[in-house]
Amino acid sequence: MDNLVKVHGGGGYDSDFSDDEGPGESSEKGLKRKREEEILQKPFQKGRHSKVAHRSLHSNELDREEARNRRAHLISMNAFERHKKFVGDYILYYGGQMADLKRSRANDKTDVDVLRENHRFLWRDEDEDDMTWEKELAKKYYDKLFKEYCIADLSRYKENKFGFRWRTENEVVSGKGQFQCGNKRCEKQEGLKSWEVNFAYVEHSEKRNALVKLRICPECSFKLNYHHKRKEVKAKKITKRLSENQEPPQKKKKKKTKRSSSHSKKHKHKRHRDRPTSSSSSEESQDSDKDSEAGDEREGQSEADHWRGPAPAVDEKSREEEFDDYFEDMFL
User: Compositional bias (Acidic residues) spans (predicted)?
Assistant: First the structure.
């Protein structure tokens, strides 16, 4: 019988079903078991393989795993590394040399190169026409510069050639060009002098002039004035506003005192005419006239002082004006 299985270690046979069960009952139990397994099987659960997997299935699974690993490797690389890898794979599979695929860097430009090409010592309204992104970058850098004092290059002073540029923020903070010598190769801080220089330069095939201010030491001043003398800027003496305001009232005083004295003299002549021409009376009249003149002059002065106008208001300097007076010598 086909359903008989030989039992090792014995000479008897055992069947798959008992004596009471027939072949129909066993098939029904098998169907029930399959139905229960189908009911209990989860949607994401894979079915059981009753046979050995085919070789193609194995190769497909390996390909999928390799693709996942390669994708993860490419994602971890940046754009330049991926480019190098693809170029290397191309040369490996199709042949060739790396020199044939190298890009020419002759036209590459950095931000510094763009600034050098489009930089201007002074920007005018005409220069801001037809602005490109290169010009906007140069204009933005120009706006960040400090244009009160210049930094000079005096290395070619014997040829009467000088280079000037504006100061940066770090140079302003350190005092370079104002409290230190404005020559870029000098750091002296004593005996600094201020000079005004008419800077003539050629920019973008166009001649331009600019009046710049420079503050340098005596040795660098000799280099600057090697061919001809430049204009030195000196501190101007400040006249107090109080003295200016007090000068006009003094002139008014003199005019008023003159008027009062002439008025007293007219009164004197009238009194001489009205009084008798005796010697005693003349002497008394002279003495009285002198006293009256002195009194009139005093009264005239006092009246002039009172009636010339309101008392001169003393202008008190504000805090900003005091700071301007204090820093005026420094900013020359």
Answer: 321-332
